[in-house]
Amino acid sequence: MILKIIYGLFILGVIVFIHEMGHFIAAIISGVKVEAFSIGMGPVLLHKKIRGVDWRISLFPVGGYCSMKGENFAESEKNVMEFSSEKDSLYGVSPLKRAFIAFAGPFSNLILTFFSFFLIALIGFSYWSASNKIILANEVYPQISSPAANAGIKTGDIIMQINGKKIEDFSELYSFVSLHPDEDLKIKVLREGKEMTFYVHSDLDKNTGSGKIGVVSDSGTTIKRQAKTYGFFGSLVQAGKETVSIFNASIKGIATLFKGVNVTKAVSGPASITTMLGDTVQSAFSSDLKTGLSSVLNFIALISISLFIMNLLPIPILDGGLILVSIIEMIFRTRISVKIRNRVQYIGLVFIAFFFIIAMIGDFNYFVRLFHEK
Fold this sequence. Notes:
The strands form 6 sheets. A 4-stranded antiparallel β-sheet has the order 8-7-9-10. A two-stranded antiparallel ribbon has the order 1-2. A two-stranded antiparallel sheet has the order 3-4. The chain has helices spanning 2-29, 95-123, 137-140, 147-151, 170-178, 232-256, 263-266, 270-284, 289-311, 319-332, 338-373, and strands spanning 34-50, 53-68, 74-75, 81-82, 126-129, 134-136, 158-162, 165-166, 184-191, 194-201, 203-204, 211-212, 215-217, 223-226. By secondary structure, it is an alpha+beta fold. The protein starts with a helix and ends with a helix. α1 (2-29) packs across α2 (95-123), α2 packs across α10 (319-332) and α8 packs antiparallel against α9. The chain is built from 11 helices and 14 strands.
């Protein structure tokens, strides 16, 4: 268990480092002085000052920061909080540069997502999966409803396409359906040599937020399969497609939370994410190097795209909040006062505290389920 946590924290540390390095590089390009760069939050454990930057490792290993000059408002001689107007401070540069600095962190996570998918497409991987020949779930588990059965699909049908996407095996079928909850799906099947089309409305699993159509795999058809590999330029194209796909899926996932999903079960907190990531690292590399690396890269891509989206939400104290304020200042050619910024940031802190509580409850539920499974 300890080894899993170490693996997970290391990978998360890399993801956080890349995010904060995005801010760091953008700040240097924009002429803003970086005072401190930390992996981890809270009390500083280790630090070393190099070329004016205090490089730190802090106590709490989830998160990090890139602290810039003038980021914290200074108190003037009149005991009034005000911005630093020095040219090398965050608020001494133009709103456009501030927006650029704020966007660079999430953008680095987007690049990491793209690069992860690029490597996966380039090196390939093997996996175990049943064929796309299905069994209706209500025939195995009578208590389960099956939208597929209600639509006319039968056990033994081979699912060839869903919404025009070619389905090669059950793994692809499962992945596609899980990302399309509460939607009308056009499913093309092969039945006794004849192609047939059915329209199935997927169920929404309110504990996970994923979609289901009430089918299970035929375990007798399970074999080891090889994912398609691409050349260098083909991998670039495939990485772009996968990045767009996971971005859209993540946006849909956020929207699904407002459809009655049990967020305390569907949302994972930092502890459960770290454990799952560590488990992925440990179990994946027990097979072969390519498969292990691909599994880890896929998880990294998922976390990175989530950070990209979440950090760009227009919530004060997040990168998206700073971007929004900078855009407002550019449009109206005025600076929002420190007093207003502070009030808005308090609102942002309330949002963050709410999300933090939800994440902690999600962590608790995850470990309770893990305990019962054992």
